[in-house]
Amino acid sequence: MNMVKLGSIICWEYQDELFEIKTRYEMAAKQKIAFHLNCLEQGGAERVVSNLANQFAKEGYEVLIATQWYGENEFQIDERIKRVHVGLTREDEEKPRVAQFLLRVKYLRSFMKREKPDVLIAFAQRANYRALMASFGTKVPVIISIRTDPVGHYDAISDKIQIPLLFPLAAGCVFQTEGQREFFAPFLQKKSRIILNPLHDKYIGVPKPQARTKDVVQSGRLVDFKNQPMLLRAFIEVHKKHPDYTLKIYGPDSFDGTKEILESIIKKNHAEDYIELMGASDSLEKDLPAAALYAFSSDWEGLPNALLEAMALGLPVVATDCPCGGPRTVIENGINGLLIPIKDQKALEEGINKLIENPEYAEKLGDNARKIGEIANSKAIFEQWRNYIEEICSKTKR
Fold first, then answer.
1. How many domains does the chain have?
2. What's the pLDDT tens digit per position in 258-288?
3. Domain-located, residue 13
4. Which domain holds residue 209?
5. 3-class state of residue 237 by DSSP
6. How far is CA 297 from CA 134, 173, 346, 365, in A?
7. Confidence class for position 15, pLDDT limits 50, 70, 90
8. What pLDDT digit, counting tens, does each position of 199-218 carry?
9. For residue 100, what pLDDT is reported?
10. Is 18 among the domain residues?
């Protein structure tokens, strides 16, 4: 067989792979991906969007982020990303509420018609509704994303009106947990994906501490649904049994009154020497790894980034099994963490004591928890999002 014929056979045999590589390259070079959310102020959805947007920009995609306003403490985005304001002007803020709502939709629609992105990905409830309303006549496919527990957030009268009207317009939907997906109608479930939140690279591969401190830690905003008052009360009981241990909570004030409640509990119980509110930190990958354990106390959440980060750092974790199943999605009880019922102070107290009193068992849980980095690293999550976006775009021929 001559070389020319052999070369032709080889090319024919691998043409599918070559075509796929060529297609991915062309799509990365040409596709324009837009994200829409309220702002980039530091929070769960905002963290996911900034991580994803940065990764898409790094891979050669044209990336835009359309936001309603600018926050004071926002996540950093790649300089190649185009940030566009689609919120109200100062003059608009003096107008009636209904007019403001319609203007928000109008400005987002104008952005979509002007920029003509290949896909628009909306994050969080109001952004989902705005994006779907704004998409009329634009031919821009919209992927919505559910980032919290639907119960209490997607079951009001207004939701029951908007969801049947708007959600059928979505080209796709990304959930964080199966519990979220089961809340919605089959038509949305069928065109959806479950994708975990991406971990920041700085939380992966952090060396295991040579020795652990006697600190119990938590990270996240001081906010009512995280039920940090229960954590404080549980730890006050833990401290009676283990007086050499301290509790440190890292996180900014949400200004909903939670911080004042926590301060009152600390003062009333004279716990200033062993319970500390540490404030916000940008270096949790340095602050947390050597802690004895991580305590998660939320009554409900989507898929909490703070919990994923603690697990990736190899911390033994005791967590409430809160709806809509975020902790249960990543924790196998007794294998890579402990799951306890929500709002159960005694169970939280017992879980903390168990990990303190059984350090070898706690260390085993932490070692297994660290493996979350293998499935939730930024590259793995990016690839899942990219594949889903390409699938949506191919179906809509964009």
1. 2
2. 999 999 999 999 999 999 999 999 899 999 9
3. no
4. 201-376
5. helix
6. 38, 28, 12, 18
7. low
8. 989 999 999 999 999 999 99
9. 97
10. no
DSSP classification of residue 397: T
Asked if 60 and 168 sit in the same domain, the reply is yes
**Residues in Cβ contact with 168 at an 8 Å cutoff, skipping those fewer than 6 apart:** 187
DSSP for residue 199: B
Do residues 196 and 275 make contact, with C-beta atoms less than 8 angstroms apart? no
Residue 25's SS3 state is: helix
Q: What's the residue count for the chain? A: 398
Whether 150 and 207 map to the same domain: the answer is no
Q: Is residue 2 domain-resident?
A: no
Residues 163 and 258 in one domain: no
Same structural domain, 107 and 194? yes
Of 100, 98, 104, nearest in space to 122 by CA:
104
pTM of the model: 0.87
Q: What's the CA gap between 119 and 67, in Å, rounded?
A: 16
C-alpha closest to that of 284 among 314, 310, 316: 310
Beta bridge partners of 276: 248
Spatial CA neighbour of 389 closest among 1, 121, 201, 47: 121
The amino acid sitting at 382 is F
Return the SS3 of 35.
strand
**Same domain assignment for residues 270 and 211:** yes
Number of neighbouring beta carbons within 10 Å of residue 318: 27
Residues 162 and 302 in one domain: no
Is 29 within 8 Å of 62 (Cβ atoms)?
no
CB contact at 8 A, 372 and 199: yes
Neighbours of 363 (CB within 10 A): 15
> Which residues are CB-contacts of 154 (< 8 A; sequence separation ≥ 6)?
125, 146, 163, 183, 184
CATH assignment of the domain containing 367: 3.40.50.2000
